[in-house]
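Researcher: Quick one. three chains, 962 residues in total.
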Amino acid sequence: MEQTETAVDNLKVIVFQLKDEEYGVEVNQVKSIERVEHITRVPRTPEFVEGVINLRGVVTPIIDLRSRFQIENADHSEATRVIIVTVDGMDVGLIVDAANDVIDIASSAVEPPPEVVGGVEAAYIRGVAKLEKRLLILLNLDKVLNPEEVAEVKEMESGSSK
Amino acid sequence: MERNQYLEMFIDESTEHLQAVNDNLMKLEQNPGDTAIVDEVFRSAHTLKGMAATMGYEDLASLTHQMENVLDGIRNDKIEADSGVMDVVFASVDDLEAMVTDIASGGEGRRDVSAIVNRLEHVEKGTAPAEEKTSGAIIPESRALTYDDFERTVIQQAGEQDFNAYSVKISLSPDVILKAARVYMVFEVLEQAGEVVKSVPSVEELEDEQFELDFTIVLITKETQEDIQQRILKVSEVKTAEVKTVQIDEKPEEMKEEKNQFEEEAALPAEQGVRSPEPVSEASQKPVEKSTESSAAPQSKTIRVNIDRLDSLMNLFEELVIDRGRLEQISKELESSELTDTVEHMSRISGDLQSIILTMRMVPVEQVFNRFPRMVRSLSKELEKKVSLDIIGAETELDRTVIDEIGDPLVHLLRNSIDHGIEIPEKRRNAGKPETGHITLKAYHSGNHVFIEVSDDGGGINRDKVLQKALKSGVVSPENAAQLSDRQVYELLFSSGLSTADEISDISGRGVGLDVVKNKIESLGGTVSVDSSAGEGTHFLIQLPLTLSIISVMLVEVQDEVYAVPLSSIIETAIIKKDDIMAAHNQKVIDFRGSVVPLIDLTSFFDVPVTREENDYYSVVIVRKGEKMAALVVNSFIGQQEIVLKSLGDYLQNIFAISGATILGNGKVALILDCNALIK
Amino acid sequence: MAVKVLIVDDAAFMRMMIKDILVKNDFDVVGEAGDGAQAVEMYKDASPDLVTMDITMPEMDGITALKEIKKHDPDANIIMCSAMGQQAMVIDAIQAGAKDFIVKPFQADRVLEAINKSLA
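Model:
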């Protein structure tokens, strides 16, 4: 690897796990990685919004990514973590099964997301990176958190709960 | 007089007080409306005077006395602490210091202070006419007692019921100092013995000390003349009390003052007597009342802290919190009980530190509001309008930085109301409104924000005038003009280049329009809007973001979750029997003190996972919104607490019925209910 | 038996002045307090027959102290020491149960008149 490769060509990514799959989010969007602390449930929020936590004095919302990606629920384990990300000036925490490495990915290794039936999911995915034996799903955090979509989902949910 | 043993103490205390006076006068110059500062200076000056007088330093005492008068005038809004006045006051302090220095070096403290005393006298009397304006002509000392029909009837009836009617003439001692206070004490005595039917001079005049030394009361009582006389003489500084039975065959002469009194009494149909002088009940005496309140509050010692230092403190503290978190993790992993204990202790302490630091920046908005009554008063005088200002919610706390900035916009809005909103008394009368206009200044928390409202009951915004001006300055095009709703037209007031005053009056500033107000508020992250009703009034609403605000709440348990209910919404808490719940139109209700109050079960309302068993008894919190009430069913009450309001953040905006969150002592987050949303 | 008096004022100077007048007239000064809170405590300890109470003090002002003492002893005999411009506060104090008031600077005869009337 040439050291003179510019940063633009490399992505530094934090890798985390959900069920059997590995995902990545860019390091510059990650504020911190925390252990799971007490989460206060917030009523009338979308299913995947677990609630809020006290993050060093700041009330921070927490999303359960399993729920968001509609993977079946699982109990939290020792490895479960909350990744605090910042998108659009908002801080949000993402619950993941485990958060492991920080790796560099050459942007050339990133391929566009595969077609999935039911276009919503595809919007979350920015691309897929193939690294030796691993397949990393790179997330589009904006879409994961996208408030508009959240609002839509909220409307859907409140409509169904009335 | 043995001065010497007191001399050292006198010099020490005087020097200390003079220092305090100097410092406070400097502060006062920066904050001319701050009555608390004036009170401090007054206190020091007064103490100085007392000491000087007792020590026999006459020049010192006389100068301090005169200064006291001026300061008193300032804090009662009779004198404005403008730079001319401040100059004179500063000059007096210089003289005082010179005298004390002289005494300290063994001198007599003599100084020719006649010039400065003169200047102070001018300052004091320079605005004295204000006093005379409000209270009318000087009342002659003794007047023949005459009765109008109403009074005669009362006295006659009293006689029929075996009561005695006495006219009591009271003379206060010539060296009496606080006349109104003595009058109050005499009235207290008389009211214990019977009922006061009449007072000459009138009660108001007595309260304003518009009399020399004598006043006469007509009393209905069963006591004897001697008894009444004895009781009155028990009050200090009363020289004589003459008690005579009333002769009611005096012809009822129509004296102007009598008529006014009669109108007053007619206004109290149920009562038979003149109400006794209520201590400081008039709105015009608000400043005095306010100073009572402020000195009734504990005078805690304070120091000024640079805001930047507070910020650094906050930042450093936040880093400390991060390390605390790490230590907690490490201690869990290492599983050393000693380490865990120490870290837990440290966590508790840092938690306390956190609360203290957060609250350090919070200041009640009263700080800004307290200069307004005076301002409104002087402005309305200047514009020859009658205006009364109501302030609600002055205890609402805001972050210091917001408070510093919100003052100017509010001043502008208030001036605007007085200048353009409230009409002149004649116009108001013709419109069938009370001559005195009302301005209400209200501050409160709601949802994620702090609201400040400025409303007046003036003439409202003239839609056409605003539109015309807007068209003229090109702010709005003729095509659009017709389409605009009333609200939209009113909002045009905030556009720059618009001033609908016929002259740019000095009051509202040279063309400094509402656009400046809007910009300021928006720079604070807030919004301002206006609504108006022609002929009825105008209402400005300022919404400011929640930085840090503290509210009192009642913490409750709903199943295993903790919620906070703002105390301001709570009427009462109660425990009701399941059997007492009735149904009306599919809505569960209870009878609460005679009203039908709907029940809202928070468990089902918020879909809280059920973990507790049902009970025959329900704990409810009765809340209200305006006239409506609701009973919130919870599992148990935890208790009252003051909490720091935290925003839920941009991501979770507009959660129904939740206005924010707070961090409890145990570090967990609790949600705050928005009762206004719950009560439809 | 001499009448027991508790003197309350935040200025040491004033306390000494009043004490002087009282002692010369055969009153027994059982205590001096520098603020309202102290005053309440000392009242409870010493149970004086009379209290002279300054109005403006740090920690707890005279009117609050008056109310606290009255709660503890409804018959407490308290005379307020006020300044010229404190009319409203004086009225508040009377309402709250003060027996009388004297205005600073003190004249011995006024002080004595007020005290004697209150004890009568």
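Chain B touches chain C through 42 residues (CB under 8 Å).
Researcher: Thanks, that's what I needed.
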